[in-house]
Amino acid sequence: MDFGLNDEHRMIVESVRSFVEEELYPHEEEVEATDHARPELIEQIKQKSLEMGFYAANMPESLGGGGLDTVSLTLLERELGRASFALQYAVARPSNILQACTGDQIENYLLPTIRGEKVDCLAMTEPGAGSDVRSMKCKAEKDGDDYVINGIKHFISHADVADYVILFAATGEEETPRGPKKLITTFLVDMGTPGFEVKTGYKSVSHRGYHNSVLEFDNCRVPASQVLGEADHGFDVANEWLGATRLSVAAMCVGRAQRAFEIATEWAATRVQFGKPIGKNQGVSFKLADMAIDIEAAELLTLKAAWKLDQGTAVDQDFAMAKVAATEMLARVSDEAIQILGGMGLMADLPLERIWRDARVERIWDGTSEIQRHIISRSLLRPFES
Amino acid sequence: MKVLVPVKRVIDANIKVRVKADNSGVETANVKMAMNPFCEIAVEEAVRMKEAGTVEEVIAVTAGPSQCQESLRTALAMGADRAIMIETDEVLEPLGVAKLLKAVVDNEGPGMVIMGKQAIDGDNNQTGQMLSALLGWSQGAFTSKIEVAGDSVNIVREVDAGLQSLTLKMPAVVTVDLRLNEPRYASLPNIMKAKKKPMDTTTPADLGVDITPRVNVISVGEPPAREAGVIVPDVATLVDKLRNEAKVIS
Ligand SMILES: Cc1cc2nc3c(=O)[nH]c(=O)nc-3n(C[C@H](O)[C@H](O)[C@H](O)COP(=O)(O)OP(=O)(O)OC[C@H]3O[C@@H](n4cnc5c(N)ncnc54)[C@H](O)[C@@H]3O)c2cc1C
């Protein structure tokens, strides 16, 4: 067993940390204050991250990506996670599912997205289909060589700045022993396709400057060549490529928690009340100890899942465990960090109140904590099923 | 021209250094280490010279225990072409390091050595000067500007009285100051490439250098805490205190 980072890991962490501190931190206040990440600012970060090779670091080197193994990528995500979500997002990690592109899709979607010329977004969730995503009503009906799409998606992240959407829509139903089951197909749909409209979404407590949208499809016609992967097998494509997204959520939570912890630790060591630093009281210092344990445990689970993915031995429950541990840890750590700072912890002058607000969405998106626990417990009990 | 860039692994500049309980040195166990900031500036300068076409090859070298390879990898990721690791667990003093570097210079034949003016651990500020003396090369310490011009190099030195411009005959040992440049952080592709760049390992014995320490460290302690200052009510009191208490004016 070896828990150490190698030279590449160490250098990646150092480089990304410097990048985050120099290129992202200085703009955080602006994004928080305005709930807007200016396009020029996003472009500047994007260019710089392209230069540094951080852009599309998740994609294989042969496609022009960073070609990082999962452990390295997880460390990169952890460091980016320290900064405001809207800003770190400018360092795009395009959806891995794009690697399922074939034929012209490679030149039209995959490669330009890796080069930073196009931005992707991904739409599964609907007002009536959240955790139970297979119950989606958005449907695509075959008409000659085309599909005609009708329906609504909501909560779709950064669709307002995307060039196309990776869309999941129902294309039929099959009979199974447990009743009828919807068949899902994945499509690549360009913004501006007639019959497809992106509307302003809801205002969220988390991640200012990073918006969600409502997507409306009204007889939107796309050719069959826009199907990503095999028709009717959209969830197979998703399962093959999207598992590691939860690792990225977990890693970013660890990074954000580490930043909150550093602020809280320094405060505990330097804030003097009753004639001594508040950290001299066990009421405060034991909080720090618990936070350190909490962060370390979540980080180990996250890195272990990443390592297992590199070894080819990861299973769904590894990602689920890492996601639950890290997202729930962040909620506790950001809350305690604010407690240690007292009133100052709530003020927008420090990043803590942002980290605390931002923590909330992490237990919900990419599969709620309950759904992750469902995944874990299902695999625990499965051996006993007859 | 080849350029040799010696680099040193030191306690990270952002870490608060602690003296060991037995006063034998400073605590390094479980402490974050990094490349000496002045060495980073030296690597950056050499890499920029290579990018500008004045230099063909940048060779990074370090001496110390095997973990010091870390700093060499960082130098390679910043753009050095290859590295030399002089492995030893012995205590290294500036003269010992200067002799090791002279041996490397004799083997490699660089036209110039660019190095930090000092390492932030010992703050000795001796190695570059000693190396130039051992080699009989020109010496330019504390530079904030370096321009190679054929057989000579024009430098600007930061000295107490201001800036001093000099032209040194090549070959030369140049030590760099803080304002020379801002070192880059390594890009992802360069970090990946660094893994494949050559790193030779040698030892003081292989180089035929005796590094036996000549200085005996008796005790390492914290500097005395500074006494609190006073705020004086007016200029007259200030002048009086400077004259009669501090005795710095007459
Ligand atoms: C800011 C934001 C951005 C998002 N971005 C995207 C995006 O880009 N693309 C996209 O497709 N989706 C996106 N989502 C959707 C996100 O993935 C869903 O919110 C999530 O899957 C949960 O669905 P829901 O909100 O409809 O909650 P519901 O599924 O309605 O769940 C409500 C509650 O019931 C619980 N629950 C549901 N089923 C069970 C069960 N079987 N057992 C126990 N408890 C259960 C849930 O855990 C939750 O606590 C985003 C969401 C948010 C908030």
Notes on the structure:
- The complex is a heterodimer of chains A (386) and B (250).
- Chain A is α+β, with helices and mostly antiparallel strands.
- Chain A has 3 domains: 7-93, Butyryl-Coa Dehydrogenase, subunit A, domain 1; 120-239, Butyryl-CoA Dehydrogenase, subunit A, domain 2; 243-384, Butyryl-CoA Dehydrogenase, subunit A, domain 3, CATH 1.20.140.
- Chain A contains 11 helices and 10 strands.
- Chain A is globular, with a radius of gyration of 22 Å.
- The two termini of chain A are 36 Å apart.
- In chain B, strands 9-8-7-10-6-1-4-5-11 form a 9-stranded mixed β-sheet, with helices on both faces. A two-stranded antiparallel ribbon of chain B has the order 2-3.
- In chain B, strand 4 (57-64), helix 2 (69-78) and strand 5 form a beta-alpha-beta unit.
- Chain B is α/β, with parallel strands linked by helices.
- Chain B is 27% helix and 27% strand.
- The longest helix of chain B is centred in the first third of the chain and has 16 residues, at 37-52.
- In chain B, helix 2 crosses helix 5 (188-194) and helix 3 crosses helix 4 (127-135).
- Chain B has helices spanning 37-52, 69-78, 94-108, 127-135, 188-194, 235-244; strands at 2-6, 9-11, 33-35, 57-64, 82-87, 112-116, 138-149, 152-159, 162-169, 172-176, 199-202.
- Chain B has one domain: HUPs (Rossmann fold), CATH 3.40.50.
- The chains are: A alpha+beta (386), B alpha/beta (250).
- Bound molecules: flavin-adenine dinucleotide.
- Residues 122-125, 130-131, 155-157, 204, 212, 361, 364-368, 370-371, 374 of chain A line the site of flavin-adenine dinucleotide (FAD).
- The site of flavin-adenine dinucleotide has 20 residues of chain A, from strand 1, strand 3 and helix 11.
